[in-house]
Please model this.
Amino acid sequence: MTKRVTSLAAAIERAGLRDGGTVSFHHHLRNGDGVLNMVMDALEAAGLRALRLAPSSLFPVHAPLSRHIANGTVSAIETAFLAGPVGQSVMAAGLAEPLRLTTHGGRAAAIRDGHLRIDAAFIAAPAADEVGNIAGTLGPNACGTLGYPMVDVRHAAHVVAVTDHLVPYPCVPPAIGAEDVDTVVVVDSIGDARGILSGTTRPATDPADRAIAAQAAALIAVSGRLVDGFSFQTGAGAISLAAAGAVAEAMAARDVTGSFAAGGITGAHVGMLEARLFRALLDVQCFDLEAAASHARNPCHRAISAAAYAAPGPRGAVVDRLDAVILGAAEIDRDFNVNVTLGTDRRLIGGSGGHADTAAGAGLAIVTTRLVARGFAKFVDRVACITTPGATIDAVVSEAGIAINPARPELAERARAAGLPLVGIDDLIARAGAAATVVSEATRASDTTVALSLARTGEILDRIRAPRHAPRGAPSSTSA
Amino acid sequence: MTKRVTSLAAAIERAGLRDGGTVSFHHHLRNGDGVLNMVMDALEAAGLRALRLAPSSLFPVHAPLSRHIANGTVSAIETAFLAGPVGQSVMAAGLAEPLRLTTHGGRAAAIRDGHLRIDAAFIAAPAADEVGNIAGTLGPNACGTLGYPMVDVRHAAHVVAVTDHLVPYPCVPPAIGAEDVDTVVVVDSIGDARGILSGTTRPATDPADRAIAAQAAALIAVSGRLVDGFSFQTGAGAISLAAAGAVAEAMAARDVTGSFAAGGITGAHVGMLEARLFRALLDVQCFDLEAAASHARNPCHRAISAAAYAAPGPRGAVVDRLDAVILGAAEIDRDFNVNVTLGTDRRLIGGSGGHADTAAGAGLAIVTTRLVARGFAKFVDRVACITTPGATIDAVVSEAGIAINPARPELAERARAAGLPLVGIDDLIARAGAAATVVSEATRASDTTVALSLARTGEILDRIRAPRHAPRGAPSSTSA
Model:
């Protein structure tokens, strides 16, 4: 039995893919990923048609996919996040079937439960041996944990490891074992791990953003949850990282030892682990190279699969154990529904990722946002697209005060007692509207549904319609 | 969602077990296991009937199971190893269906491929948190790796963690994740980890045994395989451990750096890892507490699942990568078939475990054995039961010389050129027969098949018939 083949073409042939088959990818290299594009080119060259694409996320680097959509190589996409030119192609020209925008946990559950059947999973492998033991912690493109493909490989009919760093057997420590891999192919480069930094930043320096971060941390501090065993998740945005810093200070001041921080992990989280503010990091994906290095050396910095992280179901997930999560928003509305999917100019700007999963799971889901961004109001009467249902959001923190979901009177009482600046969501909507300087012409929608915003449990939360006029910068080949 | 229940009875009710259901257990605590007995008592108390039992192995400590068989709680057993009184019960009285004696890899493959469907897997958990993250490296009964249940939990309909050491969430590092566990129950004691030493010993001190070990090592040394990257497995018997020592000396003398040692791991293997004779240990089960401690501290001492270890199939297994394995035998015959299942007194003495898996996978499968044990000839014309097919055995080493399988002329040539004492298998059979002092009366078989010896791929290798007269010491309740 030889798993090693000499080309992607040979790997594709070995996988037995047919027209209409489903192929999956992971996004641990984020905007530095080189594997999806090269595999898609090889699938196109093999003459495959009407493929269904199930990447955990898509980034601007995946722009060539627009061509594969246009020429019929790809007819359907299901992903938890999509940013970049491919989104514009989808909005402008559509796919044969509406784009399915799910969540990280929803994707894992769909694979686990057989609703999303993968014919071939292609794993960008920072290191692998010749039988497919795969490590994320070795090689020139070491990216740390490999939480997303850990789910795919358990269920895919065929698994291909694509690596640029072949190591002697046995590859130790493996994130994915050879027992879950069929084929190994060595390529010149799987991408550029420096791209995993894309989308992440340093803590906010702007005073208004820092004030929002401080208020978010203050809300956590008065919530009753900031006690020993506290668990926390935050993203890698500027306000989130500033909030993480403020939470860390509050933990240290109270001598609180948290249980874990989870999610996409950054150097900021590593600092909190090493300061013993948390006993463990539960890491589905490293958001920077500091996190990747920490995972490689620290046994308390654990890899978790996307299923362990966020999949809904009776066995539970890490997100269900979160005391608090700090989330961003492109828009938030009167019902606390959050949109991180559709821009005011009706472009796809990402999608849930773990947003809706953590909001649903966490005891305290806090959105932080400015009233206005680039002239557009971020507090609105009705979000352009529901990514995360308002029922799962507990509070929103802005520079004009904190609005608590009316369904959380106890939280409001605690915040009020602590003297935090509470305000009604209607007030924030009014103030944001007054401060806005731009109302987009492009927000008018046509009747054509081009994408579905799916809840983590699979139901349709919202239908995304194509813009009546294609936004600037969309590809010229807009014929559906 | 609360996974924690207060009793085994509640766990059984939650698992939804019905008459005829299949329950599984693992044997990492070996003869110190307390979980199987307490769960079987609870299943009996719940009034369940005709259960199918799928433990990875059974030991003398599981003697109470004879009662569950006799009273109809259990009607079928499939396991890779069975030693102790339960075997006598099965031989004397039979089960409703013949006992299925498989291999470690065969069991894993049967579970993976859906041939063995587990309704409820009960996991003896040395440590667990309240949602079922399970660690083998913590707690009073820390036993190291948990390679066997790693397979069960992936496929079982319901998974119950039974622990005597509840730790705060998150249990780190987990061998089994909460995403694979439904129910958690805390008991006073899961057994006694000191029992994992059962069946293992220290290296042989008897001069004849040491000479056999030295010859086995010499055969490996002349085989052409003892070069950088060499991989090795040996059991925990006295001759095996002495052979491991001799192989280590040969590696050091030649400055060979091996790739890995695999299998059940002992302190002897740990010593070889720490002497940098191997780059990694691939450990499906710790055979002593030194191994358990090493796994807890050394990232190159890796846990592997039983599927990764030994399951047959196109994705391969660790055993397929073995250069050499040293195995024991109760009997070996003219065709090099090995019996480690049935004693000369027609008692069940164990079964394959990983014997047939490693013989099939390894480049060089060497059996070591004395000519005679306790008066009985160990070289025979026809083994009483085929556990491991002779086609997968390369050589047998005895105190009277080395017999090479005639299907391996190149190996014989190398051994001859090196001056090793070669001898024909017929000669060894003749010499053993001459030296034997006992011929068992009890070896006569009845017409009743009570057990099947299964190949790792599932075919029936041999049928084991009940003795015509029950052996001494068998239970008196022999009515079927």
Q: What stands out?
A: Residues 222 and 418 of chain B are 7 Å apart (CA to CA).
